[in-house]
Amino acid sequence: MIRLEKRLAPSKRAQYLNPFLAVALTMIAGGLMFAALGKDPIAAIRLIFFDPIFSEQFGSYSRPQLLIKSAPLILIAVGLAIGFRAGIWNIGAEGQYIIGALCGAGVALAFYPMEGWFIFPLMIFAGALGGFLWAMIPAILKTRFNTNEILVSLLLVYVAEKLLAGMALGLMRNPDVAGFPGSRDLRRYESAHNADLIANTGMHWGVVAAMIAVIFAYVMMTRHSLGYQVRLAGQAPRAARFAGVSPTRLVVTCFGIAGVLAGLAGMFEVSGPSGQVRIDFASGYGFTAIIVAFLGRLNPIGIVLAGLLLGLTYIGGELSQMMLQLPGAAIQVFQGMLLFFLLALDFQTNYRLRLTKGARA
Amino acid sequence: MTASAPLLQLSGLTKAYPGVVANDDVSFNIGPGQIHALLGENGAGKSTLVKMVYGLVKPDAGEMRLRGQAFAPGQPSDARKSGIAMVFQHFSLFDALDVAENVALGMENPPPLRDLAKRIRDVSEAYGLPLDPTRLVGELSAGERQRVEIIRCLLQDPKLLIMDEPTSVLTPQEVDILFRTLRKLSDEGTAILYISHKLDEIRALCSEATILRGGKKVATCDPREKSARDLAELMVGQLLTPPERPARPFGDVVLQVDGLSLASNNPFGTSLKDINFALRAGEVLGIAGVAGNGQDELLLVLSGELASPSDRVCLLGKPVGQLGPNGRRELGLVAAPEERLGHAAAPDMSLTENAYLSGAHRKGLAKNGFIDWDKTRGFAESVIARFDVRTPGPHVVARALSGGNLQKFVIGREIEQNPAVIIVNQPTWGVDASAAATIRQALLDLASQGAGVVVISQDLDELLEVADSFAALNEGRLTTPRPAKGLTVDEIGLMMGGAHGMHVAEEVAQ
């Protein structure tokens, strides 16, 4: 019989080592998978993790992409990590991301074709508000009716996806182009365009927002009483009540922060890199951000590194699709494996497997 | 001393855990029918020793002989087969099952329930342990639950019965019933290994006592020939001074509770029913009661973790029933819950962070929501210094401290805030005698400086040592507080509800 035993003192070093080990194990397992698909594993790994940055051939395209892909991941993951630290499981960032994008784009399309400096700030506000309100649904259902926030927030992703499809095909569809689903291209609408701040670097407002969010989260978690309450509630819920932390307020705050950041990420995406409200706008950033949060140890600085790495797998995935004709799903398998190995390693640091002889009386 | 051959011989038993030697070369014998006390402070190694006898822990060195034959139980079922039974301090019973079903669950080959119920009745009658086999365990008092455990053991017809701190959950009357049973068992030849740190009990019950200190045996003696003070000094290894209680006048009422009722949201929790008391400045109110009679609920509703109608609880004349813990802290009420790890302190946070947990408001440790960690560390250090918390420093996480040291920190953290009212639940639970004396003295000092103090405790000796007035919680009701001076243990026992299930005892006797 196999028995699980909690380790008395889980190693602190393993905590920081595990993400690196997980990446290494993912490369090995991923390489085996590529080999099974009949591709050269070394070349594939190199293409995914190395070439996007260092290859002369692809670098000039890929390097700006790194910021473009990583910024939303980091922005969303920072918000999620705060909730995860408090033991509040918002799995629906993807939905908050979509609604944020729809609200931001909605403001832009409502003003089209008027130009004005106030349009972009208004879009930012609308995006944040949209994500916030979408996140409030699971938060309020949880505090009022004690529903499970994991289920509600996750299911709301599918509702948001339907809304997105409805908007892309209906209300927000570009009236000037008959037949094509999707909205006007915001990149061609100057007041609404989230353009690169420095040309061809991928450095858009979303990157700035992500950097601010990281600093804000870091200060909050280490210096501010709200961050203390979050950590306390996550580690010792009864002690948190003794300390006067209101569980209701904490749930609403954590969902609110995550919703605002995910909504912002969606808004910066739709007004910049994506440009359009399209059926396929949702690209899984909200889910990948969960991996980013855990891989970054729920720590804002760690999340930056993890976000860059996962951003890299997005670009590398596209490259390998192009160059090696790897299936697009392979990269999702890759990301999944990363989370799997990380959780397995974490489990292994916290618990010990014991083989016992026979069944106990 | 029994002249016959010993039932169980322990020689040179040693068990080390990482960083601590729990038992170091412990040897003694238990004769058949002997009631043998195992005496020592928390952490002296009593539990480890009996776990080795019961097969839960394997000794590193030394040997045990049962009736002259080598005895090395690999697991508790081996020990049970050899005639050793144990009643644990913490019961393993299912609330939603009845007594007979619970007993059956603990047996290797339970007979049909109907036969078992009859055997339970027979045994409970024979040994004067009133117990109805058809009642739900969830409805039983702690004393009755213990009887379930004892009867479960007796049905195995043990030769040696190990009892771990059996009286900590009993009223004085229930203790009497238990002692009668144990003496009867002893007369019939069942040996009893009785673990306790209550000296009077041991002197009343046991014919031999082995005293452990720091994992080593310091003496085996006849406790009836020693004074309680001698035993205490053997146990603690130093002289003890009882706390000073300068006579002092009481001031105005600082905490008033009127008709406070609170339904429990847990089916086996205790609802508070019509609680009334007034606490004056400088007064120590002791609240006795067997565990599970509403102590936790009372602390929560006074500390502000549970809300009540506003005017049911008045602090310094202001209604505070709807205020949360921090609102009450700002007004001057602090509390220390019973459970140290997980409630009073966060296990994985440092002592500095834990100092912030309840000290943030009164000590002004945050400015505009930003935590002043230097100031917080200073506060933690002052608690550590004043209450002699043994730890390398405030950066150490709470779970790394021993129970007693963490208790000193948790209580000290509240006392250092100079509250107007302090409420503590089981302030010295699991704390060694000298630390307990420090904590009690600090509570008394606080009272003499004019604070109102509520001490909820199951330790009657502690309450009699510190309390000015005395009340008891029984099934969620609080008796009217009476001056503690002149109360006898019998009167206190009756306030605590007497012996639960005495009516059954009378029926059985008829």
From TrEMBL, chain A:
<feature type="transmembrane region" description="Helical">
    <location>
        <begin position="20"/>
        <end position="37"/>
    </location>
</feature>
<feature type="transmembrane region" description="Helical">
    <location>
        <begin position="285"/>
        <end position="312"/>
    </location>
</feature>
<dbReference type="Pfam" id="PF02653">
    <property type="entry name" value="BPD_transp_2"/>
</dbReference>
<feature type="transmembrane region" description="Helical">
    <location>
        <begin position="324"/>
        <end position="345"/>
    </location>
</feature>
<feature type="transmembrane region" description="Helical">
    <location>
        <begin position="203"/>
        <end position="221"/>
    </location>
</feature>
<feature type="transmembrane region" description="Helical">
    <location>
        <begin position="150"/>
        <end position="172"/>
    </location>
</feature>
<keyword id="KW-0812">Transmembrane</keyword>
<protein>
    <submittedName>
        <fullName>ABC transporter permease</fullName>
    </submittedName>
</protein>
<keyword id="KW-0472">Membrane</keyword>
<feature type="transmembrane region" description="Helical">
    <location>
        <begin position="118"/>
        <end position="141"/>
    </location>
</feature>
<feature type="transmembrane region" description="Helical">
    <location>
        <begin position="95"/>
        <end position="112"/>
    </location>
</feature>
<dbReference type="InterPro" id="IPR001851">
    <property type="entry name" value="ABC_transp_permease"/>
</dbReference>
<feature type="transmembrane region" description="Helical">
    <location>
        <begin position="242"/>
        <end position="265"/>
    </location>
</feature>
<keyword id="KW-1133">Transmembrane helix</keyword>
<feature type="transmembrane region" description="Helical">
    <location>
        <begin position="66"/>
        <end position="88"/>
    </location>
</feature>
<keyword id="KW-1003">Cell membrane</keyword>
UniProtKB/TrEMBL annotation, chain B:
<dbReference type="InterPro" id="IPR003593">
    <property type="entry name" value="AAA+_ATPase"/>
</dbReference>
<keyword id="KW-0547">Nucleotide-binding</keyword>
<dbReference type="InterPro" id="IPR050107">
    <property type="entry name" value="ABC_carbohydrate_import_ATPase"/>
</dbReference>
<dbReference type="InterPro" id="IPR017871">
    <property type="entry name" value="ABC_transporter-like_CS"/>
</dbReference>
<dbReference type="InterPro" id="IPR027417">
    <property type="entry name" value="P-loop_NTPase"/>
</dbReference>
<keyword id="KW-0067">ATP-binding</keyword>
<feature type="domain" description="ABC transporter">
    <location>
        <begin position="255"/>
        <end position="500"/>
    </location>
</feature>
<dbReference type="GO" id="GO:0005524">
    <property type="term" value="F:ATP binding"/>
</dbReference>
<dbReference type="InterPro" id="IPR003439">
    <property type="entry name" value="ABC_transporter-like_ATP-bd"/>
</dbReference>
<dbReference type="Pfam" id="PF00005">
    <property type="entry name" value="ABC_tran"/>
</dbReference>
<protein>
    <submittedName>
        <fullName>ABC transporter ATP-binding protein</fullName>
    </submittedName>
</protein>
<feature type="domain" description="ABC transporter">
    <location>
        <begin position="8"/>
        <end position="239"/>
    </location>
</feature>
